[in-house]
Amino acid sequence: RHELRYWHIKGFSEPWQDAVYARLAALCATYSTRMGAALRHAGHYLSGQSADKRLLLILTDGQPADIDVDDPDYLLADTRRAVLELEEKGIFCHCISLDPHADEYVRKIFGNRFSIIDRVESLPERLPEIFISLTR
Fold first, then answer.
1. pTM, entire model
2. Of 65, 71, 104, 112, which has the highest C-beta tally within 10 A?
């Protein structure tokens, strides 16, 4: 809990350019998925942005996990608590899970605010439709 790896992909005022595309293309799964801590960290940055609607889009390949926490229910509850804390600040979360078995846990965390894409190849075509549905 004292170490969270958080990768910067694109800043709010940063244009979509080659450097951003390169950072996005370089992403790969590593370490644990300490989702509650990552949500709080991202929420800190997003809370400083003025907008009509603040949406935190979470793209994940699995359920919350950490090497120093043995209880998976604790990690689910911590992540759910982080989602509720963000909602209290006017930040709404939507999870896109690439885990075909996510139904088992994702609803416990995000309620009805999730999408499951069980074939990563379909992500480029599905992502725009999901984003449009969330920003209406």
1. 0.84
2. 65
